[in-house]
Amino acid sequence: MGAYILRRLLLIIPTLLGIMIINFALVQFVPGGPVEQMIAQIQGGGDVFGGFAGGGEDATLSADNENSQYAGARGLPPEFIKELEEQFGLDKPPLERFFNMMWNYMRFDFGESYFRKIDVLDLVLEKMPVSITLGLWSTVIAYLVSIPLGIRKAVHDGSGFDTWTSGIIIVAYAIPAFLFAIMLLVLFAGGSYWQAFPLRGLTSDNFDQLSLVGKALDYLWHIALPVLASTIAAFATLTLLTKNSFLDEIKKHYVMTARAKGLSERKVLYGHVFRNAMLIVIAGFPAVFIGVFFGGSVLIETIFSLDGLGRLGFEAAVGRDYPVMFGTLFLFGLIGLLVGILSDLMYVLVDPRIDFEKREG
Predict the structure, then answer these.
(1) What stretches pass through the bilayer (predicted)?
(2) Is the domain of 58 the same as that of 151?
């Protein structure tokens, strides 16, 4: 097992390098970089992308400054533009900038945000608790609901209960998380019906003045809708996965042998079937958590105004804050690859009979 883990760890290097190369190359062709952002702020031009639309007076004025590669730089001295490029490190060739960036990232030096003037790692650590809270609660609730429901659906396969719950699950899976989140806001956060839950944030304004129990209740009150919106897709997938896993195990010979010995259905189900059927479900917990953590966090955090990593990444991409963009991409890519290895180790922990080295051989 040690050799397998070592190989997987070594594979992280080329995989992560490939991810960074592709994204860095794509960014070079996207208009509206940090220099344009700064120029737009200085000139009060509003949307930095307005200069790329062309036409009319803008096209005429643009011709007056043909030497500038930046839209909106008209009237600004070239020396000032050069200083901006040096400030953002854009005065160097792309290849040199990429190798410098990767050398720093290998030492976990992610630099400083262009516009927030905060160290990227500190910024990530500041926003991480919100995203971890959302991902962890969503994953735990999905497992607590999906496993019992999937087991019951497997035991009563083909029954009326199985049919109508499958219909609900399919509908739940088909609804996008962001659309479900908006529906929850409209229904329960004062949109058009009931003001049962707060519209945004994780705590109330008077959170510091509440008692310990009051703080816990206030926190749960705020997190209820975002967690429900994040759970919907994972809940559907896990339920069907649990059901199918149990159905496969129930049809095996050792189950029929256990029943022939006179064991009760409950002992057969939970004493023999459960461990084997739950292998793929339990071992997949890290991957499910990461999927919820990264997959739906951008839209959910934006819709519910939660100051987490998803919203941070979205704002960095819109604002062309390259250190935050590439720093979070590197960290998330590394975490995702490490979680893949952790998932394999979970399989071995749940069932020691699994040997990845023999399978590779």
Answers:
(1) 9-30, 130-151, 163-189, 219-242, 277-304, 324-350
(2) no
